[in-house]
Structures are given as structure tokens and as C-alpha cells.
Amino acid sequence: MGSGPEVTGDAAASSCAIEERQIGDISVVSVTGTVDMLTAPQLQEAISAAGQRPPKAVVVDLKAVEFLASAGMGVLMSAHDELTPSVRFAVVADGPVTSRPLKVVGLADVIDLYPTLDEALAALTN
């Protein structure tokens, strides 16, 4: 019996890559892989860093996410609450893995949701 929490399962199953870049005065945080309770803190940190500049808007691009858990959705809601109204916040999500859960839990009613990064950027630059 160990003294710390036991971790089971494949560690590679809970991995994500996060890339942050500037497109004009908009910060884009692109996420690949799994967003769950193990990787959600990385996403929170990246979004917080993106909002520090301060940009006109922060876009979280989830188009390459393979699994979006409730922990990830909680990070998105927290980021929305922390950034707005001074910084606009949007999410790129399309399909059953990302946009469907966001719609089912009602986050799409609160957070601006776009099917592509181009559509998000066009909406946020106007």
C-alpha cells in the first residue's frame, strides 16, 4: 500500500498538447488529445496565460480534441467567467466529441461556439 493516490490505466490515454499563438490581437489556444481531470489544469494554465497580454479575445480551439470530460468543460466555463467582459471568449468545437457535450450541458448557451477557427476569428474581429 502506497502513501499517495493510486494511478491506474494508460497514462498516454490522458494526454493533451496545447499550443498558444497570436493571430493579430487574438490569442488562440489549440488543444489536441484528451481534456480530462488530469489534463484540465494544463488547459486552465494556457488560457490564463493567453488572457494576460491582454488580447482582444481568447479562442480555445478544440477541433483536434478526442475526448472532452466535464473537467475540461468546467475550465472553459471558469475561463469565460474570468475573462469576460474585458476580453471576448470563444470556443471552436464541431462534432460529437466536443460541440455536442457543450450543447447538452448548456455551455453553448453561455460561451460563443464556432465550428471552425476561421469563423471564430471572423466573428471576433468585427
UniProtKB/TrEMBL annotation:
Origin: domain of life:
Bacteria
Q: Where is the STAS domain?
A: 16-124
Q: InterPro entries attached here?
A: Anti-sigma_ant, STAS_dom, STAS_dom_sf
Show the GO MF annotations: anti-sigma factor antagonist activity
Q: Which Pfam families match?
A: STAS
Tell me which family the UniProt entry assigns to this protein. Belongs to the anti-sigma-factor antagonist family.
Name of the protein described by the UniProt record? Anti-sigma factor antagonist
Identify the taxonomic lineage of the organism of origin: Bacteria, Bacillati, Actinomycetota, Actinomycetes, Mycobacteriales
